Amino acid sequence: MNAQITRxxxxxxxxxxxxxxxxxxxxxxxxxxxxIISSIGMVIAIGVTLTAMTEIRWLWIMAGAGIGSVIGxxxxxxxxxxxxxxxxxxxxxxxxxxxxxxxxSEFHRSWATSEEISLLTTVAIxxxxxxxGIAFTGSLVAFGKLAAxxxxxxxxxxGQNIANAGVVLxxxxxxVFLCTQKLDQLDTLQMKFAYITLMVLISLSLLxxxxxxxxxxxxxxxxxxxxxxxxxxxxxxxxxxxILNNVLIVAGSxxxxxxIILTNIMCKAMNRSLTNVLFSGFGAAVxxxxxxxxxxxxKPISAEDAFLILEAANNVxxxxxxxxxxxxxxxxxxxxxxxxxxxxxxxxxxxxxxxGRMPGHMNVLLAEANVPYELLTExxxxxxxxxxxxxxIVIGANDVVNxxxxxDQSSPLWGMPIxxxxxxxTCIVLKRSLKPGFAGVDNPLFFKDNTRMLFxxxxxxxxxxxxxxx
Length: 470
Ligand code: NAP
Known about the structure:
It contains 17 helices and six strands. With 470 residues, the chain is α/β, with parallel strands linked by helices. NADP nicotinamide-adenine-dinucleotide phosphate (NAP) binds next to α8, α12 and β5.
């Protein structure tokens, strides 16, 4: 069989493995297998691409793959679950950088040899460097914000929209200029000018990544991470058109499309429209202002009293949030769930799509603690019957259970779908203080008549409850 046909068939096989792997990632039960299947697809794609190349410097390839694998393996082992969003942010960024470098090097190669370059390729180079550049610096800023290296609050200044629009217009104008250049027909000066144009284009893209991300803060961060993930995929897809590699086009499209779908899901979960996220200057709708002042007095409860309430409960809903991840309480939570079930209670775990600090954060932690998948539910499944729930236990969640999002139009969280634990017969909130959560918004839940506050580290509090049961 012709080598080209064999390569094409291998690429198709790799693409099928990507699609199946991605499909399996959408279910908790098959996610692990899906990850392995997609990885096999990637090994096939890389192997076939490398063996098809005539001039190849294996030393460089092996050194790059070796260093990358070592860093990847170590970071997968060492990075804490709570720091995963930062890591995902960095991965997105380096994906964007890699694509940007592919676009740049391809332009450089054609430029250095005065080779004719088609309009399609120039447009693809333009898209690769621009989207890749934005994904790179945007992700670095997102990483800095999540890791608290730079302030998490939105950085806003006068004339920001005009400045950003100016940068976008400059990028588009330079792009049109670059795409109309015929490298094989330019004189020396024009050639220099074309190269400088590309350099300015890259610089402006890098700048725009920073400018468009620094203005985002607080509760909008998950959307940004998903969006940047999508950008890095689109940049890879464009890079695939630059070097005419089908499997890169397919893989990039899959990442780009799934990133956009995830962005859409996150937008809905945070009550932001995608158009608003893309074009309105993110974070402008969510400011640091607080909602209507919360009134009343919180009612603290001891672990002994909380045990008595739980012991009498027929059904219990656990609502985990970032505090569970911070306290690493997932294993004791699972243990308490088992004890409650043994005691005759119906136990469920309700997961909000933006609970924690990354999409699927709570699912991953509960899966790690071997909580059965069938016990995991979503807000829309639990909310309609919340009045029938005897006890809702909120473990380090705050924004995702804030009733102000439903009741207070002046709240920055207004309109965000929440888990309505305040409608349960009793709500026990486990946290260390009355401080607000990630969005910096006060939570009236803590002062409701049916709410009891079990103050302390979530793991210590749950462990006390477990001891009481035992
Ligand atoms: P949250 O609103 O950030 O609140 C977490 C709460 O956990 C805090 O109020 C804190 O209160 C408590 N806590 C921290 N450490 C604790 C410990 N060791 N033991 C007990 N409690 C502890 O969390 P959330 O309800 O999960 O909401 C997530 C927020 O993050 C949303 O605003 C979401 O938009 C945003 N976000 C989500 C993602 C994502 O993709 N999921 C990514 C980035 C941002 P104390 O300090 O009083 O203990």
